[in-house]
Write a structure and sequence with these properties.
The chain is of the alpha+beta class. It contains 6 helices and 4 strands; from the N terminus they run ααααααββββ.
Length: 211
């Protein structure tokens, strides 16, 4: 009987922990010790609710009452969850040119191990860098699309793209943007883009301009 009660209590506690993490949009698997202690504290507070209602109801009532406090306490975990979600959405996009995909996927990879570190400054710094790289990746996609449109408009007269590209040999042009470079081969109105490369030395710039 005692064993059964203990197992029931553990199941209840675990269920509340899962529901609370879902309500707050945080990932239990990537918490440092401070995060775990905070979560355990709030789970304990919810367990004090003796009303004969579902655990879901208890959690939602608690979150509604403590929303500001909870958001402040788990701010970094919520930011990490949001970044992971944005990266997944980014990966699912169908409008990204294959020439960009591999390079950008590597650039925006999120290292979950950084969120397990106890040093809050290190975690803050990593989150800011992750946000920045995700922002830059989206800016690169937008800029690259504009560059492609410009090249298509001038494909019949490639000599007019000198303001955008540098001719490096017959029919081949080098396009240098702030965060990437790409070669364009333009022949008889046809365009082929090659050798897309991120300019990694620029990714650490504080300024987020794309030009």
């Amino acid at each position: 009987m005692v064993q059964g009660n203990r197992q029931l209590a553990e199941r209840t506690e675990n269920e509340i922990r899962i529901v609370l993490s879902e309500e707050l949009k945080i990932d239990i698997a990537y918490m440092n010790n401070r995060d775990k202690q905070l979560l355990a504290f709030h789970v304990g507070e919810i367990l004090k609710d003796s009303r004969m209602v579902s655990n879901d109801n208890k959690v939602r009532t608690y979150v509604q009452r403590k929303r500001k406090e909870l958001d402040e306490a788990f701010q970094k975990q919520q930011a990490a969850h949001c970044i992971r979600s944005d990266i997944r959405a980014f990966s699912d996009r169908k409008d990204i040119d294959p020439i960009l995909n591999d390079a950008l996927q590597k650039m925006i990879q999120f290292n979950d191990q950084e969120m397990l570190k106890e040093n809050e400054r290190v975690r803050d710094r990593y989150l800011k860098e992750a946000w920045k790289r995700l922002y830059i990746a989206n800016q690169i996609i937008s800029d690259y699309s504009e560059v492609c449109s410009y090249l298509r408009e001038h494909a019949e007269r490639p000599e007019t793209i000198r303001s955008l590209a540098q001719k490096i040999r017959k029919d081949k042009y080098r396009i240098d943007r702030r965060y990437y470079s790409v070669d364009a081969v333009i022949s008889k109105g046809n365009i082929e883009l090659r050798n897309f490369m991120l300019r990694n030395e620029r990714l650490n710039d504080r300024e987020l301009s794309i030009q």
